[in-house]
Specification:
The protein contains 16 helices and no strands. The protein is mainly α.
Length: 321
């Protein structure tokens, strides 16, 4: 079928358009040089960020004598996992791990739910004294009572030496609430209005509409909470001095790092052959590397699954306050 005059004209315009833009955006030698240096720079930067963790790992799975001599630099030598297995015999690491894991899971879940619910509430104009409560919440980000008054307050509430001291103070997180509030405000109001017209209550709207649509920002908040709970040791250091069974993993490892050079002697006090073998297997350098990896691995395992939500949520939740 022969082309009409209009079709020929459109085809000619299309070719001219592509020819013009191809010329406009063609790659020049300067662009090539820039791209090479750009990729090279970010490749080196990425490797410099990854290498310290890789270095720790290969030293924890290499022969301890070679590690002690500093001969393990780029790849494992004398592969073994005895260092990780031996840590089971060191103090109460297992109990501390369970304490840290439980506080991370429980604390993060409660904090995310509280941030979502309070963030949703402060978006409602009909909330009683909404402006006052929101400003009161924001003020707590800039002012606090200080370390000693906070400790005295926890003591008066009976939370010192109590597992709940890990959970209750972190449930309400003003910064996370602000992120969630800002994100919820970006959700079209027509969706809520249609739900209210159908007879839905605030709780139904929150549970069936707001929570599913807020997954990106809630995942972002969850990462903040999980990392904060997992890495926290100051609350354990302050409030659990009379209850060593409730020490977090970070607190326990902090103590071991401080006494790493004397750990072999402490473990050898029983005089058994197993303890003597453990002393020979674990030198202070390897202990520091191994317990550092123990604290890093859980976060490394969780973050990749949350990253896609994290990037989207942190941008959308920070556009306005």
């Amino acid at each position: 079928m022969a082309k009409t005059a209009q079709e020929k004209l459109d085809e000619k315009k299309e070719k001219e358009y592509y020819k013009k833009h191809k010329k406009m955006y063609r790659t020049t030698p300067v662009d090539i040089v820039f791209n090479v240096f750009n990729y090279l720079f970010f490749t080196i930067f990425t490797l410099s960020c990854i290498f310290p963790f890789y270095y720790l790992f290969i030293n924890t799975v290499s022969d301890n004598e070679l590690v002690r001599k500093g001969l393990v630099n780029f790849y494992p030598r004398g592969f073994n996992i005895d260092n990780y297995l031996a840590l089971r015999e060191v103090g109460d690491l297992g109990t501390s791990f369970l304490v840290s894991l439980s506080r991370t899971v429980i604390g993060t879940v409660l904090m995310v739910l509280a941030s979502a619910f309070v963030g949703y509430l402060v978006t409602k104009q009909e909330m009683w004294h909404r402006s006052f409560w929101y400003r009161f919440l924001v003020i707590t980000m800039y002012f606090n009572a200080g370390l000693i008054p906070t400790y005295l307050n926890m003591d008066l509430l009976g939370l010192t030496g109590n597992y709940l001291v890990y959970i209750l103070p972190g449930i309400v997180a003003p910064y996370n609430i602000i992120l969630v509030k800002t994100y919820i405000e970006s959700i079209p109001a027509e969706l809520e209005e249609s739900a209210f017209i159908d007879g839905a209550s605030y709780m139904v709207v929150f549970r069936k509409l707001i929570l599913p649509l807020s997954k990106p920002i809630l995942a972002t908040v969850a990462i903040f909470g999980a990392v904060g709970h997992w890495n926290s040791f100051q609350d354990s250091l302050l409030y659990m001095q009379g209850n060593e069974a409730m020490f977090t993993l970070q607190h326990r490892l902090y103590n071991y790092l401080n006494v790493a050079s004397n750990l072999g002697t402490l473990m050898n006090q029983g005089g058994t052959q197993a303890q003597q073998a453990l002393e020979q297997a674990l030198n202070s350098k390897v202990i520091k590397y191994t317990i550092s990896m123990v604290t890093i691995i859980p976060i490394f395992c969780v973050y990749p699954f949350m990253q896609r939500y994290f990037e989207k949520g942190i941008m959308l939740g920070a556009v306005k306050g």
